[in-house]
From TrEMBL:
Pfam families with a match to the protein in the record: Ala_racemase_N (PF01168), D-ser_dehydrat (PF14031)
Family, as annotated: Belongs to the DSD1 family.
Originating species: Rhodohalobacter barkolensis
Annotated Alanine racemase N-terminal domain residues: 10-225
Protein name per UniProt: Alanine racemase
Keyword Lyase assigned: yes
Length: 355
């Protein structure tokens, strides 16, 4: 263990997660267009390619440019279009096909004036989550957008996309089914209205547990490449599906219940779940026979920039190792804060580093 926090990756688990969802997509005749914002790594991206993935989802123009370096040439940019994207989109179009989230007639016109090559348009739908997109109750507005997309010189209407963030509040598979119902119903309604449209569902809990994908053509989950402690609590996976963790130095014991560690918000973000009658910013666990055993009631209870407080901690948990293993609450955010992956078998895997 070094004197700095390290991000660890279990390659076997990661590849198993990718293979499992790729097989599920194949069995359900779904297009699997994974979101690469979670791993942001050319090498890990190749593991998806090994499973037959051809098109991917990213969250920005810059992320698309990164993966173009490795020959990816079919991107959905899953963020609402804004004018600042224009120059980057022109650059991307020289090497790749693009699908964009465009939710206004004015932006469709702008894109058709500025871009000189064909592109496709998703209409992002809000089925009740409230983050972004057009409300499913505004069918007149949706119809106008579809018509505008198809009337454009270079644009073509492709389909409808929903990311159901409500499933992240679920606790158990039955709650996931209940919370995603509105999104699935919305996509089926749109499919009835536009039979040739592609319907896409984006969240990891739904992709992980749904078995009936009638009316859905595509899934674009990202988090499932690694999963995390939040997904365990949601019911998307088990602790032994989680493929990343952070190892942090133990600093000092404060009392019989608390310890100070070198692991703060710059390593974990400040995402948390409500657990143990408190905020849990990261779950302490141990590894036995390559299986993850969470230490019940032992967790990151508070964070500042570099410092963390582990509640329920006794030095006997780690013995002479002087380091603590933490399952992240939200792997997408935690991974984003590190420059490289250290694999559990001693390799280093590079990832995209934010400039």
């Amino acid at each position: 263990m070094s004197h700095q926090p390290k991000l660890y990756l279990d390659k076997e688990r990661c590849k198993r997660n990718i293979s499992r969802i790729a097989q599920k997509a194949n069995e359900n005749n779904l297009v699997f267009r994974p979101h690469f914002k979670t791993h942001q790594s050319i090498e890990i991206g190749r593991w998806f390619r090994d499973e037959g993935v051809e098109g991917v989802t990213v969250s920005s123009v810059e992320m698309a440019k990164y993966f173009i370096q490795d020959g990816w040439n079919d991107f959905t940019i899953a963020f609402p279009f804004y004018k600042g994207m224009i120059d980057g989109l022109k650059e991307i179009q020289n090497k790749a096909q693009i699908r964009l989230f465009v939710n206004s007639v004015e932006d469709i016109s702008l894109l058709n004036r500025e871009l000189k090559k064909d592109f496709k348009i998703y209409i992002e739908i809000d089925a009740g989550y409230g983050r972004s997109g057009i409300s499913i109750n505004k069918m007149d507005q949706i119809d106008l957008l579809v018509q505008a997309a198809n009337d454009g010189k270079f644009s073509q209407f492709h389909g409808f996309y929903i990311h159901d963030g409500g499933t992240y509040k679920a606790r158990g598979k039955n709650e996931i089914f209940e919370r995603v119902e509105d999104s699935v119903d919305a996509l089926r309604k749109l499919k009835d209205h536009y039979p040739n449209a592609s319907t896409s569902l984006g969240d990891t809990p739904s992709a992980s547990v749904l078995n009936n994908f009638d009316g859905i053509d595509e899934i674009t989950p990202g988090n499932l490449v690694f999963y995390d402690w939040m997904q365990v609590q949601i019911g998307s996976c088990s602790p032994n599906d989680v493929a990343v963790y952070v190892e942090i130095p133990f600093a000092q014991q404060i009392d019989n219940e608390k310890a100070i560690v070198h692991g703060g918000a710059v390593h974990f973000s400040k995402d948390f779940i409500e657990q143990y009658s408190n905020r849990n910013y990261g779950q302490v666990f141990q590894i036995f026979d390559n299986k993850f055993k969470p230490d019940d009631g032992v967790y990151l209870s508070s964070l500042s920039q570099e410092h963390g407080t582990v509640f329920g901690f006794k030095k006997s948990i780690i013995g002479d190792h002087n380091s603590i293993k933490i399952l992240p609450i939200h792997s997408c955010l935690t991974v984003n804060l590190f420059d490289v992956y250290h694999t559990t078998d001693g390799e280093i895997i590079q990832k995209r580093v934010l400039s």
